[in-house]
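Schema walk-through. Below, the input block comes first and the output block second. Nothing else is stored per chain. Lengths vary across the set, and this one has 556 residues.
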Amino acid sequence: MKTDVEIAQATELKPISEVAKELGIFEEELEFYGRYKAKITDAALNRLADEKDGKLILVTAVNPTPAGEGKTTVTVGLGEAFGKLKQRAVIALREPSLGPVFGVKGGAAGGGYAQVAPMEDINLHFTGDMHAVTAANNLLCAALDNHLFQGNALRIDPATILIKRCMDMNERALRNIVIGLGGKGNGVPREDGFMISVASEVMAILCLAKDLDDLKQRFGNILIAYDVERNPIYARDLKVEGAMAALMKDAVKPNLIQTLENTPCIMHGGPFANIAHGCNSIRATKLALKLADYVVTEAGFGADLGAEKFFDIKCRVAGLRPSAVVLVTTIKALKYNGGVKKEDLGKEDIMALGVGAVNLERHVRNLLKYQVPVVVAINRFATDTPDELGFMAGYCESIGAAYEFVNCYEQGGEGTVKLAEQLMEILDLDESRFSPIYDTELPIEEKIETIAREIYGAAGVDYAPAAKTAIRRIEKLGRANLPVCIAKTQYSLSDDPKKLGAPEGFRLNVRDIRLSNGAGFVVALAGDIMTMPGLSKQPALEKIDVDNNGVISGIF
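--- output ---
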C-alpha cells in the first residue's frame, strides 16, 4: 500500500473556494493561502451567528500506545462517511505541532484514505498560526526582561516569574537555561526555560477566545510574576497585550481545508492534551456548528485527558452541548494494555486482549458520567484475527457498549459508514443531557480530587508544598473558581506511565499548580510531566526529505 504522503499527493483536490461555496461560505469571506487553504474571516462568523447549530460529535480514544490508535484518522473517516450518506458535515480539528511531526508521529493529518489535505503543508508551516503563537509568547517574555533591564519600575521579583519562552519543537536542552549572561549590557541574569509552543498560555487563549478583542483582553490578564511585596503583575502592566494581539490578528481566524474526499474541515489551534487543554478553537467549532448538521471534532490523547478537558473546560467556556462521543480503540492497544510488547502486538493473544480491555471499559464508564451517548469505534488493523474481532464484539456487548468496526485507513469514508449510520440513529433517539462532572465553585483541591477519583480511579491526591503554596496564592487572587486542567502522562490513567490497564488505589501526585489567568483555568502538574518534550533516539525527522522539485517524502 502507498504511504500516507503518496496517497495524499495522488489525490486531486477541489479548489478551496469551491469547497467553501458548497459549504455556504462566500469567496469574499475567505483569505486565500494558495489554492487549497484559506482563512475564514469574521464576516462569515457574523453572518452565520443566528443559524441553528448542528449536532456535535466528539471523537476520543483509550490511552495511547506505541502502536497508535488512529483517532484523527477515525475523525476524518467519520466526516467523510457523513458525506457519503449525503449529510451536511464538517470536521473540526487541531493543527499539528512540529514537535511530534519531527519527533514521534511524523504527521497528524489522519492517515491512509482518511486524511485532511494538503497534508504536507498542514504538517509543516500551514498558515503560520504556530509561528504567530510563538512570536506573541516570546514578545511577552522579551518585554518582561526588558522591563527588568530598564530599571524594573514595577519592582518585579525575578524569582517569581511564571512565564517561559517557547518554540514549536521538541528540544529538551532548553528546558532549563540561564539568560542575561555576558555583562551588564546583556540584561538581568536569571534562570529561565522554554516550553513547546502548544503548551503555552498564548495557545490556550487562542483556542478559548471569542474574537480578537477577547484575545487581547485575555493576553492582558496573563499572570506573569509577583512584585517584591507579593502583589500580582499581569501582562497588561507591561502594556504588551496590544502588540501581542497584532501578531495574532490573522492567526485568530479559523482555517478551511478539505479531506481527500472533499469533506470540509475547519482546522484551528493545537494545544496538547497531556500538558494543555487539548482541543481546537471555540471559534472553529462554533462556526462548524452553524454550517453543518453534523460536526465531528476530536480531543487529544486518551479520554482521561482530552475528553475530560473538552467537557469540563471547553464546553463549559463555550456553552457547547455535545450530542455523542465516539471512543476509538484498537485490538493492538488493548493487547498492549494487557502486557504485550510492541514487537509482538501483531500476534494473536486473546488472554492479553481480555486483560487490557479493562482500559476500554473504564473509559466507557467515565464518558457516560457526562450523560452523553457513547459509541466504541474499533479501528481495524490487518493483523487483527477473527477470534480477536469476535472477542471485541462480545466484550462490548458484555459491558453494554454500542460499538462498530471501522476501516477508514484503507477505505476512507466507506469504511466508517456503519458508524455514521449508528450515530445518526442514536442522535435521533437519544437527546444528550450533557453535564460537567464538577462545579467550578468548589475549592481547587476538591476539583482536582473529583477528576482524580471519578476519571483516573485514584484513591486520593497528594500535594507537594509548592502546590499548596500556589493554591493559597490563587485563592488570594480570587481565581479559585476556575476549571482545572491537569497535566499528566497520556500513557496511563494514573500519573505513572507504567501503570497500564485500569489501575486503582493509587494516589495522584500534584507537584505544582499554575494559574493560566488569561486562558481562564488552573493547571495542576502531576507526576513527572514535562512542558517541553524531547526527541527520541530515532526521531521521525530522519525519514523526512524533499526532492529538487519540492516533493516531500517521509511524512506519515
